[in-house]
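step: validate -> pass
step: tokenize input -> pass
step: predict -> running
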Amino acid sequence: MAYKELIRSATSRMLRLGGLAGRVGVSMAGNTVANLFRDTESRDEHRTMSLTKNALRVKDLLGQLKGVPMKIGQMVSLHEKLLPEEVVLALKTLQQNAPAVPFAEIHELVRDELGKNFGYIRHIDENPLAAASIGQVHRAELINGAEIALKIQYPGIDDVIRADLKNLKGLLKILFSMFSKMDMDLVWQELNDRLTEELDYEKEAANMKRMAKLFEDDNRIIVPKVIEEVTTRHILGMELVLGISPDTVSENSYPHTLKNTWAQSMVRLILKGLFRFRFLHADPNIANFAFLEDGRLIVYDYGCMKEVPQDLCRGYVRLISAFLNHEYPKIPAILKSMGVHNANGAPIPWQMAADFADVLQEFFVPETQYTFGDDEKIYAKLYEIGNKHLGESMSMVFPKDIIFIDRTFGGHFGNLCRLSARADWRKIILSYMSQTNSANPGGFAE
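step: predict -> pass
step: emit ->
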């Protein structure tokens, strides 16, 4: 894993992003002009070369910038079917193999941050197990011989992220106004809150302990144990639990039944999180998961968690019930009760809801197993409907609490496609929706 220097200057980061946009734009425009003088075969070849070159440019810079821009690249790469293959292959490396920070900087931070508790650590491997947007993970050994994982925040990344958020707010506000009439400040507050929360590893440790308690009776989901003695705001010590990487799962011919079990464990995590506990693991980056050959799922990274308001959870139950029962006329009113409606306060058009619902019904045909990723046309259908209702979409508003819930389910849609997951999804979702009325720590018992 190559070491790259983290770019910390706010001005430098902003200039590099702007420069990247300019270079990519000029490159793509130049290729378009050159294609006027090429035959069809040559155009396709040069298009692929251009896409690959520019995707690598984006990947390299986002990997160096880390923080918010890199997270954006990770989120984009989740939706493989919406992007050219060349771009996906480049951005996919951001999900797990981002450029690492030199070990000398990491070691110094650990020693200074832990103080006397540094004595609990006998050894830290120089080569990271993984490097991501905010920190990197190293294998370590405690003085008692236990092997652990140390998640170490990049030195100065907290200042970097706050600078990125400040710089990106104005830019995103302009972009947002081009396709929505919604107040960007509400959306921004939610993005800001979730991303800054990820900087506090003590909070993440608390999230891990809470999730371990919630899933203690579920042997399908593995939450690594927190090692308190080597955990601080910038360092998270945890049990070393390793499994099969997502790339290995995708590239190798594991039995389809095993892939289905892994996929259902992933679905189990998010449906329990939404409907039963109302505490959702809200970072669907595939690198946050590893797989065991007995079908269990290891879940990493608890920095981005979403508390789901009770009323919103009940709204999802009503919405999905109306959808599954083909009661489309009820959908606009249900959405309005959830805070999703036109900017003028009117419900969204019934036909708009019905058009999208008709396409999504393909996943939930009664007593039928659906395989994610089989129907390549579904993306084209959704894109076509989006264009048809573009005007109505631009006038829609929605509550900020929906952002990370929808991001979670949208990202896992891509993950299920990657696993070619097959199951009776209607039966599964109905079984978890029924748990909203059971007595549990986060449910609706009154």
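step: describe -> Residues 10-95 form one domain.
step: cleanup -> pass
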